[in-house]
Design brief:
The complex is a heterodimer of chains A (about 350) and B (about 280). Chain A is an alpha+beta fold. Chain A is about 25% helix and about 35% strand. Chain A has helices at about 40-50, 90-100, 105-120, 135-145, 165-180, 195-200, 220-225, 230-235, and strands at about 5-10, 15-25, 30-35, 55-60, 65, 75-80, 155, 185-190, 205-210, 210-215, 240-245, 250-255, 255-260, 270-275, 285, 290-300, 305-310, 315-320, 330-335, 345, 350-355. The chains are: A alpha+beta (about 350), B mainly alpha (about 280). At the A-B interface, β6, α2 and α4 of A face α8 and α9 of B.
Chain lengths: ~350, ~280
C-alpha cells in the first residue's frame, strides 16, 4: 500500500513548482512535510490528490500507476489549512457524506460518523451547522470527515495554521491519538512548525523551492541539518548564521571573537566557514567564553519565552530566553556565544559538523 | 433634523412609487360613476366597490378574456426561464471553474460576449429574428417566442451566476471530488444546494424580463400566441374603460408578485458561512 513518487515535477510556464521529487511513503507512518511558505508542500499534496497535474515523473500507489486515476477514484482524504466544510450540512451531515459517497449503508454510516464525531469531541454539536461552530470545532469537523472513511492516503495541509495558540497545542496533542486509527493509511502532514514535526512525525521531509532537500527521523534532521537552508527551516526562530574562520586551532567568529576550536570541530581544516547558533543556545547578559555586544532591534514575547533580535558586529542574531524579559529597541546588551553549540557549514552552506546532543 | 428629512424623503418616495399602483388597484374596483366622481381612494367610504372591471377581463361579462393570454405568458416565461437558468447555470459553472479560450481570449471575454448581446437594442434583432423564425416556420408559435426569449435571458443568467459561483469556494468542489464525487456529482450534490440564492435571483430576473417582454411578442406572434402584455396593450388601443384597463394591469402583474414571494425565501444571506474560514 505504499505511495511511490519518481522524479515528480510540476512546471507552470517558466515557473518550477516541484522538481525531482522521489520518495516512497509507507502506510502506518506519519510523514511530515516541512518548509517555508511556497516551498511546494501544498502543491505536492494536491498532485498526490489529483487536484494538480504534474508535468514530469511518475506516481504509483500499490505498484499501480496512480496518475491515470481521477481525484474521485483515488480514495484520498485531505484537510486544508482553511477549515473547509459543507456549510449547508450539519456536523453529522458533513461527516456522514464521504461514507455515503463510498457506498456505506445509512445505519452503518451514521454509527461510524457518530463514533468519529465522538472522537473529535463534538458529540454535543451533531445537529449544528459549521457556521454555528468556533474555528477549532470547524477544523475538528474537517478532520473527522477526513478520518472517517479510512482513506488510503490522508493529507493534512497545515491543519492547525489558522487556529489560536492554545487550540493548536491541544489539537496537536490529540493528533497522535487520532492518527492511530489510520494505521493502514499513508499519512502526510504539512507544516511550517518544527514543534509539530517533532511531536507528530515519524519521518520528516524538508522542502525548499519545490525540492525535498533532506529527509529522515525528525530528531536526526533537527540535530544534523545537512545545510544552512535546512537549519533555518527546522529551527524556529531561525538559526543565526554568522561568518567564521578557522586558523591554527582558533575559531574566529566575525573577525571579532576568537576561541580555541571546540571538541566537535577538532581536525577541521583552516579556512573560511559559516557557523550557526540556535536561538536557545545563545544567552544575554551572561559571562561566557565568548561575549559580543549587540543592539536590540526587536523584542517578541511568545508564550513563556522572549525572542530578542539583535544587530551585532558578527551579524544579525536571534536570542531566545526562557521567561518574560524586558528589553527595549536600541538597548546595548552582551550576548554569550558558546562555540560548543556551533553548527559549522562550508561557504556553500553544506554541514560540516554539528554539536550533537 | 437629518432624521426628519430622511424619513420625509422615504415617505415621499414610497408614496411616489405606490401611488400609481394603488390608483390602479382602487380603480379596478370602481363603477363608471365612481370613476367620474374624481379622485377617491377609500372603498365603501368614498365609493362602493364592484368587480365589473374584473368580470370584463376574465371573460365573465363577455367583453374580453385575458386568461388564455396569461396561460400563453406563463408557458412561454416558464420554459424560457427554465431553459435559461438550467443551461445558463451550467455554462456559468463551467466558466467559473474551468479555463476556456483561445490565444489571448479567456473566460472573462466569453462572459463579456454573453452580456454584450444585451447591449443590442431589441429592435436591431427584430428583423433577423423574424426572418429566422419565418424560415423555421416558428412565427406565431410558443416555441419560437421561447427560443427568442431564451437567447435574451440566458446572457443575464450567465452573467449573474458566474459571479455567484465565483463566490462559492473552489475547495468545496475539490473536497466533494476527494470524497468520491465526479465533477457532475460535485456540482449536483454540493454546489447546487449552496447555489439556491443565486438560482433564485437569476430566476427572478429571467421571469420578470420574460413575463414583461412586449416587443418580441408584438413582432413575432400575431393571433395564435398572444401574451398577456400584448393583450393588455391591445386593450389600450380600443375603447376599453378605465376600470377594465386598471384591472388588466393589476391582473398582468399578480403572477409576478406571487412568484417573487415564493422565490424570495431562497434569497437567504450568508449561505457560505462556515464553508471556509
Amino acid at each position: 500500500m505504499s505511495l511511490e513518487l519518481k522524479d515528480l515535477g510540476i512546471t507552470e510556464g517558466t515557473d518550477m513548482i516541484l522538481e525531482g521529487i522521489t520518495f516512497t511513503f509507507d502506510p502506518g507512518r506519519i510523514y511530515v512535510l516541512m518548509g517555508r511558505t511556497a516551498a511546494g508542500k501544498t502543491s505536492l499534496m494536491r498532485a498526490i490528490a489529483g487536484l494538480l497535474d504534474f508535468t514530469d515523473g511518475d506516481m504509483y500507489f500499490n505498484g499501480e500507476d496512480f496518475d491515470v486515476l481521477p481525484t474521485w477514484k483515488r480514495n484520498t482524504s485531505m484537510v486544508y489549512q482553511q477549515f473547509i466544510n459543507y456549510p449547508n450540512k450539519t456536523v453529522l451531515g458533513n461527516v456522514i457524506f464521504p461514507l455515503l459517497r463510498s457506498g456505506v449503508n445509512m445505519p452503518e454510516a451514521k454509527a461510524k460518523a457518530l463514533e468519529m464525531i465522538d472522537k473529535v469531541g463534538l458529540r454535543n454539536f451533531v445537529d449544528r451547522k459549521p457556521g454555528e461552530l468556533s474555528g477549532g470545532q470547524q477544523q475538528r469537523v474537517a478532520i473527522a470527515r477526513a478520518l472517517v472513511r479510512n482513506a488510503d492516503i490522508l493529507l493534512l495541509d497545515e491543519p492547525l495554521m489558522n487556529l489560536d495558540y492554545k487550540l493548536r497545542e491541544q489539537l496537536r496533542e490529540d493528533f497522535r491519538e487520532l492518527f492511530t486509527s489510520t494505521k493502514d493509511s499513508v499519512t502526510i502532514y504539512a507544516t511550517t512548525e518544527p514543534a509539530e514535526a517533532l511531536l507528530i512525525g515519524d519521518e520528516l521531509l524538508v522542502m525548499h523551492e519545490g525540492r525535498i532537500i533532506q529527509s529522515g527521523v525528525p530528531a536526526e534532521v533537527f540535530e544534523n541539518p545537512n545545510s544552512v537552508t535546512v537549519a533555518q527551516i527546522v529551527n524556529d526562530p531561525p538559526m543565526s548564521i554568522l561568518a567564521a574562520s578557522v586558523s591554527q586551532g582558533t575559531l574566529s567568529i566575525g573577525h571579532a571573537l576568537n576561541s580555541s576550536v571546540p571538541a566537535h570541530l577538532a581536525g577541521i581544516a583552516d579556512g573560511d566557514y559559516q557557523v550557526g547558533f540556535r536561538a536557545s543556545d545563545l544567552a544575554i547578559g551572561l559571562d561566557g567564553e565568548m561575549t559580543v555586544q549587540g543592539e536590540v532591534d526587536l523584542v517578541e514575547v511568545a508564550g513563556s519565552e522572549t525572542l530578542i533580535y539583535l544587530n551585532t558586529p558578527t551579524g544579525y542574531t536571534i536570542v531566545q530566553e526562557e521567561g518574560i524579559h524586558v528589553h527595549h529597541a536600541g538597548d546595548k546588551v552582551a550576548i554569550t556565544v558558546s562555540p560548543q553549540r556551533a553548527f559549522l557549514f562550508d561557504l556553500t552552506g553544506k554541514l560540516i559538523a554539528a554539536p550533537g546532543n | 433634523m437629518s432624521k426628519v428629512l430622511k424619513y420625509a424623503f422615504i415617505i415621499f418616495w414610497t408614496l411616489f412609487v405606490l401611488a400609481p399602483l394603488s390608483w390602479a388597484v382602487v380603480t379596478s374596483f370602481k363603477t363608471p360613476e365612481a370613476v367620474n366622481q374624481g379622485a377617491t381612494f377609500i372603498p365603501w367610504v368614498q365609493f362602493d366597490p364592484t368587480l365589473a372591471g374584473w368580470r370584463d377581463i376574465l371573460g365573465i361579462s363577455g367583453y374580453t378574456n385575458l386568461i388564455p393570454n396569461m396561460i400563453n405568458s406563463a408557458l412561454i416565461t416558464f420554459f424560457a426561464s427554465f431553459i435559461s437558468v438550467t443551461l445558463g447555470g451550467l455554462a456559468a459553472y463551467g466558466l467559473s471553474r474551468f479555463r476556456y479560450g483561445w490565444k489571448y481570449y479567456g473566460n472573462s471575454d466569453i462572459i463579456f460576449f454573453f452580456i454584450a448581446q444585451r447591449i443590442l437594442p431589441p429592435v436591431v434583432l427584430a428583423i433577423p429574428f423574424f426572418l429566422l423564425l419565418k424560415s423555421l416556420n416558428l412565427l406565431d408559435t410558443h416555441l419560437g417566442l421561447i427560443l427568442v426569449l431564451t437567447s435574451g435571458l440566458m446572457p443575464i443568467v450567465v452573467w449573474l451566476m458566474v459571479d455567484f459561483f465565483n463566490q462559492v469556494p473552489r475547495e468545496i468542489d475539490e473536497m466533494a471530488m476527494l470524497e468520491g464525487c465526479n465533477p457532475v456529482q460535485a456540482f449536483r450534490r454540493t454546489i447546487l444546494p449552496l447555489s439556491k440564492p443565486g438560482i433564485a435571483i437569476s430566476a427572478i430576473f429571467a421571469v420578470i424580463f420574460g413575463w414583461n417582454d412586449l416587443f418580441f411578442a408584438l413582432v413575432l406572434t400575431f393571433a395564435n400566441v398572444k401574451t398577456l402584455p400584448a393583450a393588455v396593450v391591445a386593450l389600450n388601443g380600443t375603447v376599453t374603460p378605465f376600470w377594465t384597463l386598471a384591472a388588466s394591469a393589476i391582473f398582468s402583474i399578480l403572477p409576478l408578485i406571487g412568484f417573487v414571494f415564493i422565490v424570495e425565501r431562497y434569497l437567504a444571506k450568508g449561505g457560505f458561512t462556515g464553508a471556509v474560514r
